[in-house]
Inverse folding.
């Protein structure tokens, strides 16, 4: 049924249709609306049988999910930002034990400085946690990915994060087609665990494994990730056949045919990027977009195939790996390895750090960025809309005095002075 | 695409107004996207919310910098925040106030706009009368339907009924209808004045 609905509510309704048997959650912005809505669905009896467990922390939320999943229950949780970091140890346990928990990550920056707004720092910090990571472009896809996530997770015995941009998607009202319960039931069979803790048939999971087999256990988990590269597109195709719309998959191509320059990105920024690309296409610029829908496992072969023939590749990153650059870029570069050796030109690869801590990625800035790219005037690591004057002032303070103070507070003072100056100038008119 | 920016203060239902407007457009079979500027929510602090309406799916996610219409839920914001930023000469402006627009301290900004597209409506007073609470958000949408014609009054009322129930729904519907009639009446005056 078509609804005009908040992203969080659409996700909660869809998760409920996946019939989780245990939900353990701890609230944190911008994820809270999702678990609040689910708690109401459980309390009202609309989602039954399901046990909703209020816990004291994110560490407890995921730990309880691990217990529930190990006992054979379909388990779900959601978090964001510091909440995800607080889960870090349990994240590795969930994946290492092969427990198919599904978790929504309402992507948000990580402090310090404290910042509640959207970027991809949280999920990308857990890149190697062994969880599959799927990224939603809009709220329809965010909802649909949860149905697919349970299917993929349970078939592979691996946990899945469904990443959706905090606030930008979670708090946006837009049109979402929520499927009928029967169709979700037909697509998502009841969970049949590969291993289960059952008092009637005692077994243990979570053994200590020494050097004699640790590599092999890890290697098998890696193989499962590689199998996900085949399963995810198959499940997406099955979803399209069952529900009549495309959602998910490994990558999403937009106007890649004959594209000279391809912009690679993940999440909701893809919408704005596509609008700008279409506007520039109308003026004859050969631009295309490659959306990365599955970040873990990384779809290297699809990325390589999509980018082959492009002269320029711009990876738009919603996260900065301090001291290195772009996290997604590193994987894209590895996927392109060897292109350019057999007489082909190697693509000019540029990283653009954009939209950190909720800074809007605007069409104007993207137009300017793509114009600079077309003229081959991008630095290998470019920061979109960086206030260089603010940076310079702080660097000058640091040069001038040893005790230059806290960086974040210094910048806020500069901005406050700037705003006061602007108000005075406006008042003087 | 038609883009609306709503300015108000925490507690006035700014975000809800944008959501209701998007539901009204949705009920007319159109695509709509509503979202707030995100921040710490405090009563009385300036809040901005956005709504885009289009016949095609909406992909863009940036905040609305060049709106086609402004709804100002609290006229005390006019001198304090850059409410008129990015406004083109053909934009619609609806301000919640009992005062004449010329007395709001933004004469220069309003003079740049088409006079028949600038209206005021005493939405807080109407809300107090019909709801018993000074929450002008849904009320203003009735006035906005009259001023812009982008959504119909019927769709606004349907969105209100979908969101609220009982006395709150009834009060908002009645107040939104009054705001619609109020704006329609002042528009007729303008037409007559222009004809004279």
């Amino acid at each position: 049924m078509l609804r005009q609905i908040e992203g969080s509510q659409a996700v909660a309704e869809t998760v409920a249709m996946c019939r989780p048997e245990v939900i353990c959650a701890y609230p944190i912005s911008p994820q809270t609306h999702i678990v609040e809505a689910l708690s109401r669905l459980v309390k009202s009896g609309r989602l039954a049988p399901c046990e909703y467990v209020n816990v004291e922390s994110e560490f407890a939320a995921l730990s309880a999910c691990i217990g529930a999943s190990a006992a054979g229950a379909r388990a779900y949780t959601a978090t964001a930002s510091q909440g995800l970091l607080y889960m870090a140890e349990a994240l590795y346990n969930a994946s290492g034990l092969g427990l198919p928990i599904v978790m929504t990550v309402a992507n948000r920056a990580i402090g310090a400085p404290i910042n509640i707004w959207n970027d991809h720092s949280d999920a990308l910090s857990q890149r190697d946690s062994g969880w599959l990571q799927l990224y939603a472009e809009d709220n329809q896809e965010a909802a649909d990915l949860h149905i697919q996530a349970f299917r993929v997770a349970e078939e592979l015995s691996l946990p899945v994060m469904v990443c959706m941009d905090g606030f930008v998607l979670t708090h946006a009202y837009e049109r979402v087609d929520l499927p009928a319960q029967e169709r979700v039931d037909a697509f998502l069979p009841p969970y049949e665990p590969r291993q289960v803790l059952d008092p009637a048939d005692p077994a243990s999971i979570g053994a200590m494994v020494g050097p004699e087999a640790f590599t092999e256990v890890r290697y098998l988990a890696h193989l499962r990730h590689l199998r996900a590269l085949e399963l995810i597109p198959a499940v997406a195709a099955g979803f399209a056949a069952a529900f009549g719309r495309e959602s998910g998959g490994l990558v999403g191509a937009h106007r890649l045919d004959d594209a000279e320059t391809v912009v690679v990105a993940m999440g909701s920024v893809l919408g704005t990027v596509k609008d700008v690309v279409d506007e520039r296409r109308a003026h004859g610029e050969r631009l295309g977009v490659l959306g990365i829908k599955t970040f873990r496992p990384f779809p290297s072969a699809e990325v390589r195939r999509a980018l082959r023939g492009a002269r320029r590749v711009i990876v738009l990153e919603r996260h900065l790996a301090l001291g290195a650059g772009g996290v997604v870029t590193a994987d894209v570069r590895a996927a392109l390895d060897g292109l350019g050796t057999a007489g082909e030109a190697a693509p000019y690869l540029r990283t653009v750090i954009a939209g950190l801590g909720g800074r809007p990625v605007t069409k104007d800035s993207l137009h300017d960025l793509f114009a600079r790219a077309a003229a081959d005037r991008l630095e290998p690591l470019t920061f979109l809309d960086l206030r260089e004057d603010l940076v310079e002032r702080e660097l000058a303070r640091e040069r001038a005095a040893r005790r230059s103070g806290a960086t974040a507070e210094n910048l806020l003072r500069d901005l406050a002075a700037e705003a006061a100056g602007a108000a005075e100038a406006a008042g003087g008119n | 695409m038609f883009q609306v920016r709503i300015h108000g203060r925490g507690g006035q239902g700014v975000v809800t107004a944008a959501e209701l407007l998007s539901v009204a457009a949705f009920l007319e079979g159109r695509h709509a996207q509503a979202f707030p500027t995100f921040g710490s929510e405090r009563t009385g602090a300036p809040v901005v919310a956005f709504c885009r309406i289009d016949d095609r799916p909406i992909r863009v996610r940036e905040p609305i910098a060049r709106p086609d219409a402004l709804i100002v839920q609290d006229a005390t914001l006019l001198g304090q925040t850059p409410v008129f930023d990015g406004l083109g000469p053909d934009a619609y402006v609806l301000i919640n106030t009992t005062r004449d627009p010329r007395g709001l301290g933004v004469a220069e900004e309003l003079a740049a706009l088409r006079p028949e597209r600038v209206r005021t409506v005493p939405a807080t007073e109407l809300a107090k009368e019909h709801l018993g609470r000074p929450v002008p958000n849904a009320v203003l949408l009735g006035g906005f339907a009259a001023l812009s014609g982008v959504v119909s009054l019927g769709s606004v009322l349907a969105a209100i009924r979908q969101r609220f129930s009982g006395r709150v729904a009834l009060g908002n519907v009645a107040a939104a209808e009054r705001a619609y009639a109020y704006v329609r009446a002042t528009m007729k005056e303008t037409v007559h004045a222009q004809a004279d």
